[in-house]
Amino acid sequence: MDEFDGIVQQSVGANLGLRYLDGARMATMSDIQLANPETLSRINLADRLTHNMDRTARNLNLVVDAAGALRAIDHNAWLFLDRAMAQRAPFRFDLLEGHVLGDRSLSTPSVPSLDFDAVDHASESWIAATRLSRAEMTQRLHDYAQALAAAR
Fold first, then answer.
1. SS3 for 56?
2. Helix/strand/coil for 71
3. What distance lies between CA 120 and its chain's CA centroid?
4. Tens digits of per-residue pLDDT, 104-123?
5. Which of 48, 63, 84, 115 could form a disulfide with 144 if both were Cys (CB 3.0 to 4.6 A apart)?
6. Separation of alpha carbons 58 and 71, rounded Å
7. Strands (DSSP E) found in the chain
8. How far is CA 77 from the centre of its chain?
9. CA distance linking residue 70 with residue 25, whole number of Å
10. Which H or E run contains 49?
11. How far is CA 132 from the centre of its chain?
């Protein structure tokens, strides 16, 4: 069993794999210094949206793909869904202390229009575990996204 398989076997709930990046290597702080500012801004925005709390200098959770592009990985410490579903307003979107991009002055890209049709495709058991209807979940995610747009 490799490290990844061990993590998946020990985790609770659904796991999502997006894509294997053949030829990727772990990023370094030098890679961040040389990265495209727009890429860093998008990672910053995604981490603010999701409250990703584990992108630190000790654990960058970034890779450089075979083409040299910086890619964010390892999104297992997201807290936004719990906060959005519990309506823990006012929502905060600052990066947590120690975040590798927290001390950078980055432009904030516009918040894209978000479509929450993924809620329509979620399993019944997952929806039931939230104790909310699909419509309530969609509304709460929409409210959360609107709060992010307003916080920019």
1. strand
2. strand
3. 20
4. 777 766 766 777 788 888 88
5. 84
6. 17
7. 25-26, 62-64, 70-72
8. 8
9. 10
10. helix 37-50
11. 22
Q: Are 147 and 91 a contacting pair, CB within 8 Å?
A: yes
Give CB contacts under 8 A, 24+ apart, made by 26-31.
26/60, 26/62, 26/63, 26/64, 27/60, 27/62, 27/63, 27/64, 27/70, 28/60, 29/57, 29/60, 29/100, 31/62, 31/64, 31/70
Mean residue pLDDT across the chain: 82
- Whether 13 has a pLDDT exceeding 80, the answer reads no
Q: What is the pLDDT of residues 45-91, one digit of tens each?
A: 888 888 887 888 888 999 999 999 999 987 666 677 778 888 877 88
Cα dihedral angle (121, 123, 126, 130), rounded to 10 degrees? 50
In the chain, what is the greatest distance between 2 CA atoms, to the nearest angstrom?
46
State whether residue 67 is helix, strand or coil: coil
CA dihedral for 124, 147, 145, 105, sign (positive or negative): negative
Whole-model pTM: value is: 0.74
1 has pLDDT over 60: no
The pLDDT value given to residue 25? 96
In this prediction, residue 77 carries a pLDDT of 60
